[in-house]
Every structure is written in structure tokens, then in C-alpha cells.
Amino acid sequence: MEPFVRVDQYQYIRKQLLELVRGYQTANDKSVQGALKTMALERMFSLFPAMTKEQEDILKQVSSVNEKEEAERFLLKLKSYIIPFQITEDEIINAFPKMKKLKVPALQSFDLTNCSYISWIDQSKLLKFIVTRRDGYVTGTYGTMEYSQKTGVCAICKSVEKTGLFLVKEKGKEAGTYRKKGNYICVDSQACNQNLTSLSPLYEFLDTLRK
């Protein structure tokens, strides 16, 4: 069967399973346990409004998950149905038309089955690059990253992680002036991707940078 699960959807399902297992550990009432599974399945089904019978049968296997080890086995099986982040080196280069001598990291350095977006730091320019695909189009954003030792809520994944202030600079309305826009995001993009359970906050964050 063809892959049908986006990376963010996989992470959402993983989160639901972890909550389900925790609920099973604290609830002894079988009716409560049954309700927890029903809610978890309904939330998972809502991710795939046009799912096929085969896809539904795969997700229904959650009904047999009670323990952490069973959840891990299910997630390992589901991982084979993940749609990897689709990107080519040329698409990345074209996403930054004004950037001269762009250093694109080897795509093999990313685990694209764990990426809803890709990001890297160009130490020579002291810039952080973010690349996403939205409605079939690849877009690129870059800016500076001001690091701190504090944890905070990431504007992309909405989780509490070690964050830094990501800022983009753009020309102001008056000649010779500039303005900066940004927010705090995860320092570790890999952790951010693992925490990201919906593409909406990622797109919302990027949209605020372009307004």
C-alpha cells in the first residue's frame, strides 16, 4: 500500500498513543478504557477524511494497544506508511533567488521521514534557513538566530523546548530603513519536527514573517 501519513500526522498519532497508554495506566474501569480508545481513534480518523478501507484497517489496530511496547510496535509499523518530506537541491536553491552562493546541505543529512520542514545553519553567513512545501510549492525563509539558555514555547511546534529568537530583516517603507520580524523557535529543528503535530502553526509562523 502507498504511504498516506504525513510526518506531522504521524507525530499527532504518536502523541495520541502516548496519552492512551498513560490513560490505561491510571484508569482501571474498562468503560473508561474503552472510551479512551474510542476518542483516540476518532481523533486519528479525523486526520484522514478520505481514507480508504485499507488505511482505516491499519489505524483500527490501535484498538489492541494497551501497553507502551504495543504502542511502539504499532508506530514502527505505521512508520512504513509515512510520506517523506519531498524536496530536491534545485528546489531549495530556487526558493532563495536573492541568496548568492547558497550552501545547501546534503539531503542525505536529513531524515526526511521525520521532517515536516528542513532547516540548517550557515555558519559562514550566521543565518538560519527554513524550507517548507505548501500546496505543492517550495518556499524558503532565512534570518538570524539569537540563542539563549532558557526554555520557552516554540512558535512553530508550540512545545516547551530550548528556544532562540529567529529574526528576518526586510526593507522598511522609507529608503535606507529596515525592520525585523520574528519569534522564538526551537534551537533543535529535529526536536521541533518531532513535536509538530499539525502544519498550521508552522504556516502561521511563516505567514507572520511575510506580512
From TrEMBL:
InterPro entries: EF-G-binding_C (IPR032330), EF-G-binding_N (IPR010841), EF-G_N_sf (IPR038344). Residues 4-86 form the Elongation factor G-binding protein N-terminal domain. Residues 94-197 form the Elongation factor G-binding protein C-terminal treble-clef zinc-finger domain. Signal peptide: none annotated. This is Fibronectin-binding family protein. It comes from Gracilibacillus halophilus YIM-C55.5.
